[in-house]
Structures are given as structure tokens and as C-alpha cells.
Amino acid sequence: MALSPEMDPLVDSESIKITGKGTIVAQSDGNQAGFDLIVQHEVGVCTAFGDHVVMVKYVALQSRRTKKFETLLKSGQRGHFGGVLAGWDRHHDMMIVKLTEVTIGGTQK
Fold first, then answer.
1. Which of 11, 24, 59, 109 could form a disulfide with 2 if both were Cys (CB 3.0 to 4.6 A apart)?
2. What is the pLDDT of residues 43-64, one digit of tens each?
């Protein structure tokens, strides 16, 4: 299963792309703006936070395409996630990334 939300017209070639394999650890219930996935990426080296993981909040903006995928993505699923760096969540110490693709279970679309 894969997800490719429509790209924001403000995203350009200067944007920082983030990709990696990880596990979904939480998901928002969704709202009119879209939904969020919290993904834990095991990086294999000690990070600035003293552990070997990086937590990323992937934000998927609402569209007809993302609505159907929201119901298929569940906590515990592993996959490959990609997007564009959108900021830093200081409250939760995690990157915020605008989701542009996710592949779960080896199928990409």
C-alpha cells in the first residue's frame, strides 16, 4: 500500500527531503486539515537525545486520496516513509515532515 498526497505548490527543489524506514507508533484521528502519523525510525547511532531512534511527525494534508489511506494505516505497521521537512515540534522533540509517500507491506503506488 502506498500514499502519494498532492504536493504543496510552495515545495520546491530547495526543500529538504526526508526518507527512511520506520514503524508507525501513533496516528491522529484526522480532521478537516488532514491527519498525522508519528513514526519511530531506528537510526543505529546515538542521537542528540541519547537514544538510537528519531521520532518524526508526518503530516498528510486532506484530499480525496489521503482520506482512504488514513483508514488503512495503523500503529505497529512498518514501512518506508518520505516527505519534505516542514519544521520542528519543540514540545515533543520531533521533526515535522509533510508526507509525500509511504510504502507499507512492499507495495508502492
1. 109
2. 888 877 678 888 999 998 877 6
